[in-house]
Amino acid sequence: MSRILVTGGAGFIGSHVVDKLIAAGHEPVIFDVRPSPFHPDVETVIGDMCVLDDMLRGADGCDAIAHLAAAADVGEVQQDPIGSERLNARGTVNVLEAARQLEIGRVVYASTIWVYSDVEAAHVDEETALAPPAHLYTATKLAGELYCRSYRELYRVESTVLRFGIPYGPRARPAAVIPIFVRKALAGEPLTLAGGGLQTRRFVYVEDLADGVVAGLAPGAADRTYNLVGDEEVTIREIAERVRDEVGDVELVLTEGRAGDFRGAEVSGARARAELGWEARTSFAEGLSRYVAWHREHYATEPVAAAAPVTAPAPAPVVAAAPAVELARPARRLPVRRVLRDVALVVVGAVAAVLAALLGDGVLDGTGDVSHYARQHLFWTIVILGVVAVTSARAYGARRRAAAERA
Ligand SMILES: NC(=O)c1ccc[n+]([C@@H]2O[C@H](COP(=O)([O-])OP(=O)(O)OC[C@H]3O[C@@H](n4cnc5c(N)ncnc54)[C@H](O)[C@@H]3O)[C@@H](O)[C@H]2O)c1
């Protein structure tokens, strides 16, 4: 069992990662600016990943970090470029820096297949050379990938980059296409399809994606990049028809608009299948049906959210409003390696001091007589080693007290 910090663990994908970690026998710790509505019982650190001290506190004692916290909504990024860049780029550096300072074994980084959006090729995989991205969201996510690489090269921090396809499923943000269709259909409103709804999307069911994050922790995935994508292509019209089948008879209205079939490149998931044994197993029909069931149940008990307008932005990760660090977790463990190092230093100092004292008395050399020079020499050896031992012990005590105060 490993203790895994999940940044953004209160969010859409992160909350499913928490579920899958528990199912796999790991011990997840949520790190987020807000408490998770989905996991009130899971150990949670409330903090801002852009503040290095918060990250260090959150990651202390963890074996790996699944880094999902971000400004994940492209519309939100466009509205707040500075704040989004801070979250996605600086936040990721802080995660890597915490991993470096605390000697954490692995960072699994949630990237996106949007990194391929400016590539000309019709078919792309992890070896495809990327083109500089046009969208700021993609630029900041790519910055995170590059930081993973830099930390690997400079400091040997192990990382795994996962490029997510378009996720859908329970807990999805209300502003995405599937939640909008389902909400409208349940309200008896017509579903409007611009340009005939011929645009295609390649979705990946969120629980499958979360399985992929757990698979990304495997030793063999160190310093590798994987696309986590589904292989089913659905048109917007098919989504609307399936929603109609699930929810009841609603009208589909075809309007003028951006026609055509924006496909984007076809993204290969072959490497994840071959190396991680991961593939998106949930069919779109099954995943949609599960989403509709969740939506009905969730919004039946969440009237305020259900009444939110369709275009309501996602729960925004407003960093400025983030509360001061509060720790809702049990007393933190001191990293074992650091404690062992301190203890070893004290023991070595003490043993050396005793040996020196015995030698000084002429006990160990058997002569019973020691020159004046040797006595001087031994006296100072004892003093220096004593100072080292006392200093180490005091530093260790101070760290223990600081850790206890933080907890
Ligand atoms: N949803 C998608 O369409 C999609 C697609 C590809 C990749 N991704 C990536 O997957 C990851 C998760 O996306 P999601 O859809 O679950 O997003 P989400 O918005 O649902 O969750 C993000 C979480 O991060 C938290 N957070 C924000 N700022 C923080 C900070 N300063 N410190 C700590 N926590 C903070 C938020 O409170 C939220 O709980 C992101 O890295 C995103 O870029 C998402």
Quick take:
With about 400 residues, the protein is α/β, with parallel strands linked by helices.
Give the arrangement of secondary structure elements.
Layout: E1 3-7, H1 12-23, E2 27-32, E3 44-46, H2 52-59, E4 64-67, H3 74-79, H4 81-102, E5 106-112, E6 123-124, H5 136-155, E7 159-164, E8 166-168, H6 177-186, E9 191-194, E10 200-201, E11 203-205, H7 206-215, E12 225-228, E13 234-235, H8 236-247, E14 252-255, E15 266-267, H9 270-276, H10 284-300, H11 303-306, E16 326-328, H12 336-360, H13 372-406
Helix pairs in contact: 1-7, 2-4, 4-5, 6-8, 6-10, 8-10, 12-13
The structure holds nicotinamide-adenine-dinucleotide (NAD).
Mean pLDDT: 83
User: Distance N terminus to C terminus?
Assistant: 23 Å
Rg calculated over all Cα atoms: 28 Å
Ligands, deduplicated: nicotinamide-adenine-dinucleotide
- CATH homologous superfamily of the largest domain - what is it? NAD(P)-binding Rossmann-like Domain
Number of helices: 13
Strand order of the largest sheet: 12-7-5-4-1-2-3-16
Which regions are unreliable across 5 or more consecutive residues at pLDDT < 50? 303-334, 403-407
Shape call: elongated
Largest sheet: 8 strands, mixed
**Count of beta strands:** 16
In the CATH hierarchy, what is the class of the largest domain? Answer: Alpha Beta
- Which structural class do you get from the secondary structure elements? alpha/beta
The proportion of residues in beta strands is 5-15%
